[in-house]
């Protein structure tokens, strides 16, 4: 039966937040490649201020590839090893600003800097001084000029309209491309005029992948994600804002999860997610802290037909500022995910969540490889349970509530027994039957009996 499953290579990313380059390389070989992740998004690779908080990574002092996460050689080695494992590297590019530290200092790799002075790169004239608000900080998001030319939390705002600034940024991005990266997450893209971003990325080789972070701020804000879709993709924040609360409240009646999705950018421009490093510390309705509900949210996203999903994997925290565990010099410690098969009941601060290694995630990547070309059919609700079919190729079902629920989903999949990809993972079918739960399709219906806070997924490749 497994021969019936045509497999595609699905476009699925993983954000490995604040993970050292050497560990990402290990992950590419051990897990990301074998599971079928097509790209990994790293944290910013350039030199930043020397502080322990994770957000030091978002305060550049220069463009040498020398950071708490590793050296230039480490980075280059990671890109090569990931590439050999079939995994592209997308680097987080912090190009809207330099550090926001008011005092002069020395960066992580020893480079001296002062606020608005970065020797060899930028001087006072290369920055915006909007003169529109106290301390030049952005306060009014209904003003395009403030959002794009004032300072985001005191971060020295580069004048990205200036030829010198553009050239300097292009040189940095070209350097990363020379090491083999496939593209960039454009940090704080909303805070740069779309024309400026376009002019910068337009200098890069054809095919460079660009994913702009433009946090959708609602109709009152003048800067909209749609402005940034002419030269790449954008992270679509409406997606987690829709999916997360549905999972959290176990109420799947909201029709926005299906259909035309009018509030969202076109699917081929959207990168979607359950949470990221900012939203897990803020607005996200569901994060690793929600254990099984997080699995449910990820399963629904990975089974869905809208956008390119990116899975998030970071480390446990109670203090939102706390950096990943590091040595005495501030270098982040390597971490392994061996043996991580699902969410833990509880985590120690700093412990890696290892989402990329979870059985359910590997199973859903396999589901996507088999089913993502098929139409997504309308969802079926049964109390706190919900599910849908990818026509003729796979069915997913979840129970986000506190009671056992039986849910039946009409399907055109062949009748028979199927092995669950959530509990069985990538190779759910084994000689003796199923690695995990077995479900049955009969008379055009897939039947699932779901315990509280569980998910199930079957696909043509998981038929027994
Ligand atoms: C982003 N996208 O637009 C990043 O995803 C987000 O993580 C970054 O904020 C932000 N934009 C700037 O790149 C993070 C933290 C902030 C932190 C900032 C700079 O969420 O809390 O600000 O990085 O490190 C911190 C302090 C501020 C202070 C600022 C400047 O929290 O109070 O004003 O540093 O020193
Ligand atoms: Ca700006």
From TrEMBL:
What's one GO BP annotation on this UniProt entry? carbohydrate metabolic process
- Matches recorded under SMART domains: Aamy, Aamy_C
- Please name the SUPFAM superfamilies in this protein's record: (Trans)glycosidases, Glycosyl hydrolase domain
GO terms for MF: alpha-amylase activity; metal ion binding
**Glycosyl hydrolase family 13 catalytic domain ranges (all copies):** 11-368
- The reply on keyword Hydrolase is yes
Group of enzyme by EC? hydrolase
- Transmembrane stretches, by residue range? none
Keywords attached to this entry = Calcium, Carbohydrate metabolism, Glycosidase, Hydrolase, Metal-binding, Signal
Q: Fetch the Gene3D superfamilies from UniProt.
A: Glycosidases, Golgi alpha-mannosidase II
Q: What is its EC number?
A: 3.2.1.1
The cofactors it requires, by name, are: Ca(2+)
Q: Which PANTHER family match?
A: ALPHA-AMYLASE
Q: Which family does it belong to?
A: Belongs to the glycosyl hydrolase 13 family.
Protein name per UniProt:
Alpha-amylase
What broad taxonomic lineage does this protein's source fall under? Bacteria, Bacillati, Actinomycetota, Actinomycetes, Micrococcales
């Amino acid at each position: 039966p497994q021969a019936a499953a045509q497999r595609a290579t699905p476009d699925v990313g993983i954000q490995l937040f604040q993970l050292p380059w050497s560990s990402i390389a290990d992950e590419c070989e051990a897990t990301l490649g074998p599971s079928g992740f097509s790209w990994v998004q790293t944290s910013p690779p350039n030199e930043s201020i020397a502080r322990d908080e994770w957000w030091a990574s978002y305060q550049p002092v220069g463009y040498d590839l020398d950071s708490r996460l590793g050296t230039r050689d480490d980075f280059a080695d990671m890109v090569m090893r990931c590439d050999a494992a079939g995994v592209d590297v997308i680097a987080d590019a912090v190009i809207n600003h330099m550090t926001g530290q008011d005092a002069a200092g020395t960066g992580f790799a020893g480079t001296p800097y002062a606020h608005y002075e970065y020797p060899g790169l930028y001087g006072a004239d290369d920055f915006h001084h909007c003169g529109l608000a106290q301390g030049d900080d952005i306060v009014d998001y209904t003003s395009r000029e403030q959002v794009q030319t004032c300072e985001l939390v005191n971060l020295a705002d580069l004048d990205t309209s200036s030829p010198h600034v553009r050239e300097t940024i292009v040189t940095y991005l070209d350097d990363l491309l020379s090491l083999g990266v496939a593209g960039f997450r454009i940090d704080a893209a909303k805070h740069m005029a779309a024309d400026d971003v376009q002019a910068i990325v337009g200098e890069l080789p054809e095919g460079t992948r660009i994913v702009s972070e433009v946090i959708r701020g609602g109709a009152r804000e003048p800067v909209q994600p749609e402005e940034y879709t002419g030269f790449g993709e954008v992270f679509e924040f409406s997606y987690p804002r829709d999916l997360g609360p549905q999972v959290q409240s176990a109420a799947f009646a909201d029709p926005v999860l299906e259909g035309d999705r009018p509030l969202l950018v076109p699917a081929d421009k959207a990168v979607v997610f359950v949470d990221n490093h900012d939203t897990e510390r803020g607005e996200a309705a569901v994060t690793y802290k929600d254990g099984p509900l997080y699995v449910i949210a990820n399963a629904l996203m990975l089974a869905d037909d809208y956008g390119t999903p990116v899975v998030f994997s970071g480390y446990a925290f109670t203090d939102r500022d706390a950096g990943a565990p590091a040595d005495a010099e501030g270098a982040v410690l390597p971490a392994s995910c061996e043996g991580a098969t699902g969410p833990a009941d509880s985590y120690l601060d700093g412990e890696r969540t290892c989402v990329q290694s979870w059985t359910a995630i590997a199973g859903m990547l396999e589901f996507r490889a088999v089913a993502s070309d098929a139409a997504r059919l309308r969802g079926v609700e049964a109390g706190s349970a919900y599910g849908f079919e990818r026509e003729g190729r796979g069915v997913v079902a979840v129970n986000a509530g506190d009671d056992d629920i039986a849910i039946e989903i009409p399907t055109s999949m062949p009748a028979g027994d199927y092995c669950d990809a959530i509990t069985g993972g990538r190779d759910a079918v084994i000689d003796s039957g199923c690695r995990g739960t077995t479900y049955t399709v009969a008379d055009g219906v897939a039947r699932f009996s779901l315990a509280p806070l569980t998910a199930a997924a079957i696909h043509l490749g998981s038929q027994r």
